[in-house]
Structure to design on (555 residues):
């Protein structure tokens, strides 16, 4: 069949489909436009789309001129986008993700989570124990000016813990989001480099937090320091560990892809990993909120703040150990 | 065709063609986005100074959102960031479907690695090492950056009396003649004539200066104009 004849015969079909595309691409952006009389009804679309695909295949096989093939290709591509594109219903899934999906995922990845926890808590606990004995070690981790800043933050005379005179709660909340979530994202992303980046950030952050905690555990700073950090520690430290676990997930897929290619293994590992990061980001957000608005308060005695800290740890552990069990998936 | 076309198969059993975007247009798109983000942040910083600490809080929060979520949000809802849109690019899944949140976030969180050690060097290395120009984020999220197809112009072969070529032409030869005819209007007369004399068996015996017209006539015949 000559190209001109082909065009004459089928032009009406693809023009009708194009009109439907234009209407529905607009609809995706803003509301429903008034339906046009000459538009295809929605129930006809799958058939019309398959027809376009068939015409494209025919045009290619018969080697029609490039412009008609390109045009049909473009129409089929747009149809492909609309028919196989995004579906709604995200908010409902979000709720079930946090009640069941996320803790289940953490449990199913328990090996990586345990590895990340060991990498992070190891240096933290060692330095926490070593610093009271060798106080000068702190200068390996913090320069004197930085230390002075920390000392101002945890000064027992400070009416609001963890902040300097001029700081305000909302600003600190914003700062914690900007800074801590960034650390979490970096810990995750650099895991793709054979896991090395995640390992580095876990060790580094563990060491830094351990050194500062060890330094302030001695003398008069102990109570203000621990009553400041106890409230948000559960959320924040677990979120770092989970970011590291997500990063290690990427790294382990690259190192040991199994029977798939490294790229395929990476793609498959990235799906659960990014879901772990959803959860970790939410935990960073909660931690920043607690750290900005609850942790600095001195109106409550230290014992109350320690209790809250313990309750938070109990909550986080219970959540990850038991939430989402027993219900059918 | 020898170019950066990438074919994807659909469930309908046909192949669609996507045109991949290389490092240069993507770097330009990133630069446009960078400028845009800088302007927005500068405006927030400028208006924020009036609000002191609260303004600084807003600045930090927007800096965080703009750095990490700006590209992901645009790609998950519109398919491309304003910078990519300006360069005519769009991000798609490997199978040609539009991006959703998980893939958009994956490819944009991994910018942190692609940027290393400076100015997307790791990302650039990854891009030139695979056939789809994927940076590390694209590899993990299984995404492609392709050209948004522009509106196509109609068949531009000048009208002329159809002339049969006189003997059977192969499909590649037919396409070459149709392509020549549709481009002939953009060439100088002398150049078009020079090119038209190359297929001697078609233009032999045609009076001087008429070879272009002869090929356009054959093209009209080949596309079936009567």
């Amino acid at each position: 069949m000559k190209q001109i004849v082909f065009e004459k015969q089928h032009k009406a079909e693809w023009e009708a489909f194009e009109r439907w595309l234009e209407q529905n691409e607009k609809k995706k952006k803003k509301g429903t436009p008034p339906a046009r009389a000459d538009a295809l009804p929605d129930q006809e679309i799958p058939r019309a789309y398959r027809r376009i695909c068939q015409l494209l295949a025919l045009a290619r096989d018969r080697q029609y001129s490039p412009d008609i093939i390109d045009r049909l290709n473009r129409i089929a591509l747009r149809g492909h986008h609309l028919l196989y594109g995004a579906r709604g219903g995200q908010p409902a899934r979000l709720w079930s993700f946090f009640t069941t999906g996320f803790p289940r995922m953490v449990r199913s990845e328990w090996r990586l989570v345990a590895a990340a926890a060991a990498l992070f808590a190891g240096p933290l606990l060692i330095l926490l124990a070593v610093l009271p004995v060798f106080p000068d070690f702190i200068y390996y981790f913090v320069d004197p000016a930085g230390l002075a800043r920390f000392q101002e933050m945890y000064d027992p005379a400070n009416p609001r813990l963890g902040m300097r005179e001029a700081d305000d709660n909302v600003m600190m909340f914003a700062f914690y989001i900007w800074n801590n979530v960034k650390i979490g994202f970096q810990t995750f992303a650099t895991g793709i480099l054979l896991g090395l980046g995640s390992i580095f950030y876990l060790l580094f952050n563990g060491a830094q937090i351990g050194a500062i905690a060890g330094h302030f555990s001695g003398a008069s700073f102990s109570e203000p320091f621990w009553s400041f950090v106890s409230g948000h520690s559960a959320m924040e430290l677990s979120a770092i560990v989970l970011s590291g676990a997500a990063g290690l997930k990427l790294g382990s897929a690259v190192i040991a892809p199994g029977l798939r290619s490294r790229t395929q293994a990476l793609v498959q590992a990235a799906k659960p990993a990014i879901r772990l990061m959803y959860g970790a980001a939410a935990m960073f957000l909660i931690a920043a909120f607690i750290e900005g608005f609850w942790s600095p308060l001195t109106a409550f005695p230290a014992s109350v703040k320690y209790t809250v800290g313990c309750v938070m740890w109990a909550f986080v552990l219970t959540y990850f150990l038991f939430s989402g069990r027993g219900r059918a998936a | 065709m020898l170019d950066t076309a990438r074919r994807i198969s659909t469930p309908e059993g046909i192949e669609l063609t996507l045109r991949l975007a290389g490092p240069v247009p993507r770097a330009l798109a990133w630069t446009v986005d960078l400028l845009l983000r800088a302007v927005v942040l500068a405006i927030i910083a400028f208006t924020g100074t009036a609000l002191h600490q609260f303004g600084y809080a807003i600045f930090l929060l927007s800096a965080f959102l703009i750095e990490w979520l700006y590209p992901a949000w645009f790609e998950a809802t519109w398919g491309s960031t304003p910078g990519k849109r300006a360069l005519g690019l769009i991000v798609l899944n490997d199978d040609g479907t539009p991006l959703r949140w998980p893939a958009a976030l994956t490819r944009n969180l991994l910018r942190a690695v692609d940027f290393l050690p400076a100015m997307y060097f790791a990302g650039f290395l990854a891009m030139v090492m695979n056939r789809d120009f994927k940076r590390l984020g694209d590899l993990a999220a299984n995404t492609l950056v392709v050209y948004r197809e522009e509106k196509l112009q109609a068949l531009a072969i000048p009208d002329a009396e159809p002339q049969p070529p006189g003997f059977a032409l192969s499909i590649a030869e037919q396409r070459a003649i149709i392509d020549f005819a549709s481009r002939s209007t953009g060439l100088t007369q002398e150049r078009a004539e020079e090119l038209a004399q190359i297929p001697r068996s078609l233009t032999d015996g045609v009076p001087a200066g008429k070879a272009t017209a002869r090929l356009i006539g054959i093209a009209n015949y080949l596309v079936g104009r009567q």
Remarks:
- Chain B touches chain A through 57 residues (CB under 8 Å).
- Chain B has a mean pLDDT of 86.
